[in-house]
Design goal:
Two copies of one chain form a homodimer. Chain A is an all-alpha fold and about 700 residues long. Among the domains of chain A are: about 110 residues, Orthogonal Bundle (Helix Hairpins); about 140 residues, Four Helix Bundle (Hemerythrin (Met), subunit A); about 130 residues, Helix Hairpins. Chain A is built from 30 helices and two strands. In chain A, strands 1-2 form a two-stranded antiparallel ribbon. At the A-B interface, helix 9, helix 12, helix 13, helix 19 and helix 23 of A face helix 9, helix 12, helix 13, helix 19 and helix 23 of B. Chains A, B: InterPro entries: Ion_trans_dom, TPC2, Volt_channel_dom_sf. Chains A, B: One of its GO terms (biological process) is endocytosis involved in viral entry into host cell. Chains A, B: Pfam families: Ion_trans. Chains A, B: Keywords: Calcium, Calcium channel, Calcium transport, Endosome, Glycoprotein, Ion channel, Ion transport, Lysosome, Membrane, Repeat, Transmembrane, Transmembrane helix, Transport, Voltage-gated channel.
C-alpha cells in the first residue's frame, strides 16, 4: 500500500509539473485513474483529434447547401455548385458531436462535480450540444429541407470554448463593454440630434429645383439617419455635402461640425477607452500564467515532500533528489530543458531539496533558448580559407541584395515598356534572358554561401532558408521552362505547351523574384524592428483573431440566412449586386467579412430589398470596423510601446537571437508570487488534501 | 543714484513676476528703459494689435483676386466676386508689414545681440519679412498682374512665430519625423512591391473580355500605383477588387493581404509611433512652464534681496516685506490672486522673507479658483419658502429635462408625419401650437428657478445661462411670430410676411429647441466626463490647431496657384468638377482642407488635367489624414487616460467645480525644480548680473 501511495505521489507530481509547463490550472482530480485519464486527455493525439474535429465542423459550411466552391463569383458564368446528398454532412456532423460529447464528459469528470456547477463555460458547452443535437434530429426528420438551421450559428462556440486564451480575452472585452456602450450611446444621441437638425435644415422648399439635398439624402427620417450614419463611416463624405454646399457655402458648417464631433472626437474616444482598458491586459495575462506555473511546481513539491523519506526536522519540508529524478524521467517536456534541469540537479549534488531550491531548478523553463549557430567548416587549403572569408563576409550578402534590387528594377523597366503592348506583340526574350542570368547568379550565391558556411550553419539562419527555398523553386521553374520552350532567343514566343504558357511561367518567376526581394528586410534596422513587432503581434493576436473568426462565422451564417435568394442580378443595379449576388454564399460572405468592413458601409447606403438588413450591416460595421479595429490598435500600441522601451534598454544584446515570447517581453516587470499566495491557493485545491 | 538703483530693482522684480505669471522667459534686457519697452511690448493693447495684424494679413486671402465671397459655390449661378482695385489689399499688406517690422525690431532689441544670433526663429522672421517686401515691390511694379505671389505662401509664418506653444509643438513634431519617415518608407516599399506584383498578376491577356481588372486599374505603372495608393486610403475599397474577384475568388487574397499589411499594420504602426513619441509631451511642456514660473519668482527674489536693507548675516538673503508690497502693487495680475497674496503677506507678519517663504507666497498662482455659487435668497413667508424648496430641488430640473425630451419627440413625430407632404399641403398649426405650449413651459421654468435661486445664483451655473439664453431667444422669436402671423389656428399657413416666412420661423424655433436639449449632458455622468475631456482637449489642442491652420493655409494657397483655371465645368464630369470648380477659390480650398481629407483621397482616383497634381493630393493626404489625425489620436489618448486615472482618484471631490487647466491636471506628477537648478539658470542670464 505504501508503494502504491508512493506511485500516486510520483504521478501526481508528474502531472503537476506538466501543468506548470503548459500553464494549465491544477484544479483537477488527483486519484491515480483520473490522473491517467487526465494525461491521456491532454496527450498530443487527443488534443489534435479535438482540434481537427473543430476544424471539420467549421469547414462544413464551405460545402453545405447554400455555398459555392466555384472559382468565379460571377453568377452569369458560375456553374452550379456541388450539392452534397442529404445525410453526408449530417453524418460528419454527428461524428463531430460524438467527439464533443466525449470531450465534455471527460472535462466535467476531471474537474469534479463541485467545480462543474461553478463552471459556466461547461454548462454552455452542454447546452450548445443539446440544442445542436435536437436541431440535427429535426433536420434529418425533414430530410434536410428545413428552412433554418440554428446549429450552424452555434458552431463557432466549439472553437471558442476550446481555447483558454480566447475565453480570457472575451472576459476582458466583456469588462470593457459598459464603457463602450456609453460611447455608442453618445454616438446615438449625436446622430439623432443631428438628424433632427438636418431634417429641419434641409426641409422641402416650395422651389422644387432648390431642394436637391432633401431629395437625395434627407427625404424622411430613415433616409436622414442613414445618410448621417454613412457620413459617420466617411463612405459618402464629400457627396452628401455637395448639393447643399453648392446652394450656400454656409451649409458646410453643419457637415463639418457633424464630422468633427462624430468622427474625430467620439470615434477616437472609443479608441482611447479601449486602449485604456487593455493597457494592462497583456501584462495581467502573462502574470497569471506565471502564477499557474509557479503553483504547479509548488504543488509537485508539496506532493513529493509527503513521501516517506521526510527527515527529522519537520519545520521545513524537503524533497529527495532521487524522487525528483524519478519524476523528471516521466515528465513530457522539451528535451533541452529536461537535460538542463537534470544537469543542474547533478551539479547541486544535494540529497534534499528545499522549496526554493526546487523552484530554482525549474527556472530553466522560463529561460530563453539562446540559439547558437553551428560553426563554419574549417578548411585546410589556404585557397579554400580565402574563398570562405570572401563569401562568408557580410558584404557578399549586401552584394546579393544589390543584385536582387537590380533584378527588381529590370523587371520594372520591362513592365513599363510592355505595358501598352498587345499580348501578340510581346517578346518574352528580354525578360527570359534577364531571369536566366539572375537565377544563375542566385544559384551561385547559394552554393558559395553553403561552401563558405557549411550546410548546417547556412540552414540555421531563417533568411538563408527563405533565400534557398525560393532559389530552388526558381531553378526548378527555369529548368521546366527551358525543357518545354528551349533557350531564350529573340522572338521567343512559342505557342502554348503543357500546363502553363511561357508568359505565365515568366510571370510566375518574376513574382517569386519580387517575393525574394523581401530578404533585404533584416538588413534594415528599423524595418526589422517593425517586422519583429508585427510578428510578435501576430502571436499575441491569436486569441483576438480566434474571436474574430467566431464573430465572422456567426455573421456570415446569419447573412446567408437573411439574404438567401434576396438578390437577383438585374440590369442597372448590376454592379452593386455583384457582391450581393455572391452574398448568399458562404465563402463570399466570409471573404467579405474577413476584411472588407467598408463593404458594410457602402451597403448601408443603397436600398436593399429587405429594409431591416440595414440593422445587420450597422451591427457588422460597429463590430468589425469600430470595435475590432480599435482593439487591434490598442494591442498594437501596447506591444509596440513595450518593444520600443525594451529596444532602448537592450540595444547591446541585439546580436543574440532570442526566441521572443510574450512571457519574455515582460520578464522585467513581472512579479513573482509569494510563498503565502501559493500555499493559500494550494489549500483551496478541491481534490488535493495536503497533510499540513 | 541709490534711489534710482532701488527703482530699477523694483521694476525688475515687477517684470520678473509678470514673466512668471505669463510663463515667459526671463532672458531679456533689464535696464530701466528696456524694462519700460518690455512692459509696453507685452501690454495687452500691443499684443492685441499684433494679433489683429496677423488676423488681417491671413484674412486678406478671402478678398484677394482668386477668391469668391459669394454664397453659392456653383459656377453656374455664381455672380462674379468683388474684385478689389489694385493697391487696396497691397496697402493693407504694407501696414501689416510695418507692424511686423516694429515687432521684430523690438523683440530683437529686447533679447540683446548675443541672443539674437542664436535665435533661428527671429532670423527666419526677418528673412520672411525681406522676401515679402521684395515680392510686394515686384507686385506693385507689375500693377498687381504678376503670375505668382510668393508672399502669400509665407503669410502663415507670421502666425507661427507669434506663439511659443506652436513653436514648441513644432519642435516636438520635428523630433518624431525620422521615425515617421521610416514608416512612410516602409509604406512606400510595401506599395511598390505590391504594385509590381499586381502588374504581373493582372497582366493583359489574349482574351480581351477577361482583363477588366487590367483595363480598369492596372493598365500601366502610374495607374497601378494610384489604384493601390487609393486602396490604402480605402476610398476605392470594394470596387478595385470586384473585376478580379468575379473572375476568380482567389484574387481576393492579394487585396486582402495588401490591405491587412498596409492599412491594419503599417498605418496603425504610425499611430503607435506618434503616440509613443507624444506620450510625455504634455507633461514635459507643463513641467517647463512650471520651471519658468519658479525661475521668474526666484529672479524677482534675488533682485529684491540686493536692495540696501540686507541684514547682517549674509549667508542667506532676505527680502523685506515692504519692498514686496511695493512690487505687488505695480504688478499686473489677476485681482483675486493679488488679494490673496497681499492677505497672506499680512498674515505672515514677518518683516523679512526667505526665498522659500517668498516662493510659497506665490503658490497662490498655481491654485485652482474654487468657484462658489452665491447663496439662495431667504424668504420670510412660509409659502415662499415652500415654493423655493419645490422649484430649487434637483427633481424640478429633471422634470425640465423630461419636458425637453417630450418636446424633441413631438417635433420628431411631426417631422415624420410631414416628411412627404408638399409644402403647399403643410399645416403649421400643430407645430405652432406645440411650440407655443413648450415655450411657455420653458419660460415658467426659468422664472420659477430664478425665484427659487435668486438671479445671481441662477446665472452662476453655466447650464442655467445656456438654458436662459435659449429660452429668451425662443420667446422673442415666438412673440415676433405671433406679432406677424397671429395666434396659431387650424390652417395656420399665411403668406410670406416680413423677413422670414412662418415656416422658416417655426423651423428656427425647432432647431433652437433641439439645441436646448443639450442641457441634459451634465446630468449624465459618463457624458459629462466625455464632454469635459473634449473641452480640455480643445484647450490643449490650440497649438496643434494653429499648426494645422498654418499647413491648411499654405496648402490652400498652393492649391489655388496650381489649379487656377484648371477646371472648366463640362457635361459628364460635372459632378466631380463640382469641387474642382470651386477649388481654385480660397474659401472652398480652405473648407475642403479644413476637414474633408477624404476629398483628397477621392481626388487621387480620377484623372486630373495636371497629372502631377497627384503629388499635391498625396502630400495633402499624408499630412492631413495620416499625420495630423494620428497626432490628434495621440493627444486624445494622452488626455483621456490622464483624466480617467484622475477621475478614479478624485471621485469624491467631483462636486466642486474646478477651473481645470492643463497645469492642474498634472499637478500630482510635476517635479518642483531644485534650488540649484534655479540658481544655475539665473547665473546664465545674459543681462542680469547678480552680485553673488
Amino acid at each position: 500500500a505504501a508503494g502504491a501511495a508512493e506511485d500516486l505521489y510520483i504521478s501526481q507530481a508528474v502531472v503537476f509539473i506538466e501543468d506548470a509547463i503548459q500553464y494549465r490550472s491544477i484544479n483537477h482530480r488527483v486519484d491515480s485513474k483520473s490522473l491517467w485519464l487526465y494525461r491521456w486527455y491532454y496527450s498530443r493525439i487527443c488534443q489534435w483529434i479535438l482540434s481537427l474535429t473543430i476544424t471539420i465542423i467549421l469547414a462544413l459550411a464551405f460545402i453545405e447547401t447554400p455555398s459555392s466552391l466555384t472559382a468565379t463569383s460571377d453568377v452569369r458564368y458560375r456553374l452550379p455548385a456541388w450539392d452534397p446528398p442529404c445525410g453526408l454532412t449530417e453524418g460528419i456532423e454527428l461524428l463531430c458531436f460524438l467527439v464533443f460529447m466525449i470531450d465534455v464528459s471527460v472535462k466535467s469528470y476531471l474537474i469534479g462535480w463541485e467545480e462543474f456547477w461553478k463552471n459556466k463555460w461547461l454548462m454552455a458547452y452542454i447546452l450548445t450540444l443539446i440544442i445542436s443535437l435536437t436541431d440535427w434530429v429535426v433536420s434529418l426528420s425533414f430530410f434536410c429541407t428545413e428552412a433554418v438551421r440554428i446549429r450552424r450559428i452555434l458552431r463557432p462556440f466549439f472553437l471558442l470554448q476550446n481555447s483558454s486564451m480566447m475565453k480570457k480575452t472575451l472576459k476582458s472585452i466583456n469588462s470593457t463593454l459598459p464603457e463602450m456602450a456609453s460611447v455608442v450611446l453618445l454616438l446615438a444621441v449625436h446622430l439623432s440630434l443631428f438628424t433632427m437638425f438636418a431634417m429641419l435644415l434641409f426641409a422641402r422648399t416650395k422651389d422644387g429645383l432648390q431642394d436637391k439635398e432633401w431629395v437625395g439624402y434627407f427625404r424622411n427620417l430613415p433616409d436622414s439617419l442613414t445618410s448621417l450614419l454613412v457620413l459617420l463611416t466617411t463612405a459618402n463624405n464629400p457627396d452628401v455635402m455637395i448639393p447643399a454646399y453648392s446652394k450656400n457655402r454656409a451649409y458646410s458648417i453643419f457637415f463639418i461640425l457633424f464630422t468633427v464631433l462624430g468622427n474625430l472626437f467620439l470615434m477616437n474616444l472609443l479608441t482611447a477607452i479601449i486602449y485604456n482598458q487593455f493597457r494592462g491586459y497583456l501584462l495581467k495575462s502573462v502574470q497569471s500564467s506565471l502564477f499557474r506555473r509557479r503553483l504547479g511546481i509548488r504543488a509537485a513539491f508539496e506532493v513529493l515532500s509527503s513521501l516517506k523519506e521526510t527527515p527529522a526536522n519537520a519545520e521545513q519540508s524537503y524533497v529527495s533528489a532521487g524522487a525528483l529524478f524519478q519524476v523528471l524521467q516521466k515528465v513530457e517536456m522539451d528535451f533541452r530543458c529536461k537535460q538542463a534541469i537534470m544537469m543542474s540537479l547533478k551539479i547541486c549534488s544535494c540529497d534534499q531539496l528545499s522549496a526554493a531550491q526546487f523552484q530554482r531548478l525549474f527556472e530553466e523553463l522560463d529561460k530563453d533558448a539562446i540559439k547558437q549557430h553551428p560553426p563554419c567548416p574549417e578548411y585546410r587549403s589556404h585557397f579554400m580559407r580565402k574563398v570562405q572569408f570572401v563569401f562568408g563576409h557580410p558584404y557578399f550578402g549586401y552584394l546579393g541584395n544589390v543584385v536582387a534590387l537590380a533584378n527588381i528594377v529590370s523587371i520594372c523597366v520591362v513592365l513599363v515598356l510592355d505595358a501598352d503592348k498587345q499580348p501578340s506583340e510581346r517578346d518574352d526574350f528580354f525578360l527570359g534572358a534577364i531571369n536566366c542570368f539572375f537565377i544563375i547568379y542566385y544559384l551561385m550565391e547559394m552554393l558559395l554561401k553553403i561552401l563558405a558556411m557549411g550546410l548546417k550553419r547556412y540552414l540555421s539562419y531563417p533568411s538563408n532558408r527563405f533565400d534557398g527555398l525560393l532559389t530552388t523553386i526558381l531553378l526548378v521553374l527555369e529548368i521546366a521552362t527551358f525543357a518545354e520552350y528551349g533557350f531564350p532567343h529573340p522572338g521567343w514566343r512559342p505557342e502554348f505547351v503543357g500546363l502553363l504558357s511561357l508568359w505565365d511561367m515568366v510571370r510566375l518567376a518574376n513574382m517569386l523574384i519580387v517575393f525574394r526581394f523581401l530578404r533585404i528586410i533584416p538588413n534594415m534596422k528599423f524595418m526589422s524592428l517593425v517586422v519583429t513587432t508585427l510578428l510578435d503581434l501576430i502571436k499575441n493576436l491569436r486569441a483576438f483573431a480566434g474571436i474574430l473568426v467566431v464573430v465572422f462565422y456567426a455573421f456570415a451564417i446569419t447573412g446567408i440566412m437573411l439574404f438567401k435568394g434576396a438578390v437577383v442580378p438585374m440590369g442597372n443595379v448590376r454592379k452593386k449586386c455583384d457582391f450581393m449576388s455572391v452574398f448568399s454564399h458562404f465563402q463570399a460572405e466570409f471573404i467579405c467579412c474577413l476584411l472588407y468592413h467598408r463593404i458594410a458601409e457602402s451597403f448601408i447606403s443603397f436600398h436593399l430589398i429587405y429594409r431591416w438588413a440595414k440593422v445587420y450591416f450597422v451591427a457588422w460595421w460597429l463590430i468589425s470596423s469600430v470595435i475590432w479595429v480599435n482593439l487591434f490598435i490598442a494591442l498594437l500600441l501596447e506591444n509596440f510601446i513595450h518593444k520600443w522601451d525594451r529596444r532602448c534598454h537592450r540595444e547591446s544584446l541585439s546580436d543574440i537571437e532570442y526566441q521572443r515570447t510574450v512571457e519574455l517581453m515582460f520578464r522585467d516587470v513581472l512579479e513573482e508570487p509569494t510563498e503565502e499566495e501559493l500555499m493559500e491557493k494550494l489549500h483551496q485545491h478541491p481534490h488535493l488534501h495536503l497533510c499540513r
